[in-house]
Every structure is written in structure tokens, then in C-alpha cells.
Design goal:
This protein has 251 residues and is α/β, with parallel strands linked by helices. It is built from ten helices and ten strands. The strands form two sheets. Strands 6-7-8-3-9-10 form a six-stranded mixed sheet, with helices on both faces. Strand 4 and strand 5 form a beta hairpin. Helix 5 crosses helix 6. The longest helix is centred in the middle third of the chain and has 14 residues. The protein is globular, with a radius of gyration of 18 Å. It binds adenosine-5'-diphosphate and magnesium ion.
């Protein structure tokens, strides 16, 4: 088997007496969607923050493509191909969809915003941006001001901006949150195809989407991974079912 693109190795984080990440080990392999689920307060966001680089673990390591990135900050990890979406929306609402995608492509090249006018005329950046918009189904909205997009379209644009970075790994924090049925369905279709470009570590409360999309699911309870497996195995796992009693029901 090829080397996992992302490895979380015994990551531990304590907040006072609380162990929010308790020796968490998991990996993300080429071509897969690996969902991370767990009841509220289980430690999902804390783990994602440590993978993205915003929060330093007390112990353990994070490896990208076999390289230890534990000492790198968020920008350093992004430069190594870790794309995080949906936590902080960085879209410029007053600019068009295409302009936002071009700015994303510029960021991927380490450019600066000062030359915005000439940047928008840069054919290479523009092609990268247009390809990303096409990929997420937003070509027709390229000239639309971002503020006029629906919530679901903005999320698609966030994916397009992430795509301009040519990511090796996607970290997605609740991409379906706030989307209606139509938006969720569109996002599900998008993520389904995206895994071929870069694998996705997916935190998501929409259990129907999780069980439809995930190749593997890890279940986090009180900071600990209590199970990792294929959706069918997770659905039938007694410890997992017990952890979910009174919380979101498993489909
Ligand atoms: P989830 O995302 O699974 O709902 P979190 O990672 O947000 O869970 O939180 C896990 C636990 O860690 C919770 O008990 C939460 O209150 C606690 N926690 C998270 N961040 C902090 C912090 N900065 N300081 C203290 N406790 C925290
Ligand atoms: Mg959370």
C-alpha cells in the first residue's frame, strides 16, 4: 500500500484536566474520503486545528506525505498542499466569482494583492481559476458578484479557491452546514468526485452524507478514537451505537 498522504500519530492535547485529544492516530490515503464523526465535545474541532496547524499538540506528530509538519504553522502546511475549507470563509464578497478564484490562484503562487489589476489579466492565473470554477460547476456564475451567490454556491466557490492551490489533502469542517437539501446534494456530488484529485478528511454532522460518501469512518468519543472502519462496520459497531444514543442518530 502506498504511503498515506496524511498521518496523525498519537496526537494528544490537554486543556487543564480535560484530555481533548487522547493519543489520536489516523491516516488519510490516496483517493479516499475519511470521515471523522463523534458527539458534540468529542474533540473533532480540536483535532482538526492540530492537523491544520492552528493549535500545537502536547504530544504526537502530524505528517504530510511522510514529512513531519508538526512544527509548521497553518501557512507552512498550506504551502505543502494541505487545503482547509469552510472554517473561515476568505471570499471577497464585492469581487466576482472569477476574481475570487484568480486571487486564490495568485495566493497559491505566493503573489501579493497590490498588483490586483494586472493579476486579473494574467492568463495563466485566469486559466487555473477558470478550470477550478468549471470543476465545481460555477462557470456560468464567473461574472457574478460573490455577494449575490446563494450560500451553497459560496461553498462551491470556496472549494474552487482551494482547488487553485492544487492541494494534496483536503481538510473539510462541516461543508454541509447550513445548506438546504439541494445544496447538500450538490456538495455531496462535488466531494464524491473531488476525492480522486485529493483525499478528504471530512468532519460532518450530516450522517446521511457521511455514510454515503465515506470510504472509512473514524469515531471520536471523549478525545479517543473508539473505532475506524468501513461505514457498514461502523454502523454495526456496538460501542459506536452506544456512544450515539441520545445524540445524532446513525442512519
Ligand atoms: P467537537 O468539535 O467534537 O464538538 P471540540 O474539539 O470543540 O469538540 O471540544 C472538545 C473538548 O475540548 C470540549 O470539552 C471543549 O469544551 C474543550 N475545549 C475545546 N477548546 C478548548 C479550549 N481552547 N480551552 C479549553 N477547553 C477547550
Ligand atoms: Mg466542533
Amino acid at each position: 500500500m502506498s504511503l498515506p498522504l496524511l498521518q496523525v500519530d498519537s496526537v494528544t492535547k490537554r486543556f487543564g484536566a480535560l484530555t481533548a485529544s487522547d493519543a489520536v492516530t489516523l491516516d488519510l490515503r490516496a483517493g479516499e474520503i475519511h470521515a471523522l464523526i463523534g458527539p458534540n465535545g468529542a474533540g473533532k474541532s480540536t483535532l482538526i486545528a492540530q492537523i491544520a496547524g492552528g493549535l500545537a499538540p502536547d504530544a504526537g506528530r502530524v505528517l504530510l506525505n511522510g514529512t513531519d509538519v508538526t512544527a509548521l504553522d497553518t501557512a507552512g502546511r498550506a504551502a505543502k498542499g494541505l487545503a482547509r475549507t469552510f472554517q473561515i470563509s476568505a471570499l471577497a464578497m464585492e469581487h466576482t466569482v472569477l476574481q475570487n478564484a484568480v486571487l486564490g490562484a495568485l495566493g497559491a503562487k505566493g503573489g501579493r494583492l497590490g498588483l490586483f489589476r494586472s493579476v486579473l489579466g494574467d492568463q495563466t492565473l485566469r486559466k487555473t481559476a477558470e478550470a477550478a470554477l468549471e470543476r465545481v460547476g460555477l462557470s456560468d456564475a464567473a461574472g457574478t458578484v460573490t455577494a449575490a451567490l446563494s450560500h451553497g454556491q459560496r461553498r462551491q466557490l470556496e472549494v474552487a479557491v482551494a482547488l487553485t492551490l492544487r492541494p494534496k489533502v483536503f481538510l473539510m469542517d462541516e461543508p454541509m452546514a447550513g445548506l438546504g437539501m439541494e445544496g447538500s446534494a450538490a456538495m455531496t456530488t462535488l466531494l464524491d468526485g473531488l476525492r480522486a484529485e485529493a483525499p478528504i478528511l471530512l468532519v460532518e454532522h450530516d450522517m446521511d452524507a457521511v455514510f454515503r460518501l465515506a470510504d472509512r469512518i473514524s469515531v471520536l468519543v471523549a478525545g479517543r478514537v473508539i473505532a475506524t472502519g468501513r461505514p457498514d462496520d461502523i454502523r454495526q459497531n456496538a460501542e459506536v451505537r452506544a456512544a450515539y444514543l441520545g445524540d445524532e442518530a446513525l442512519p
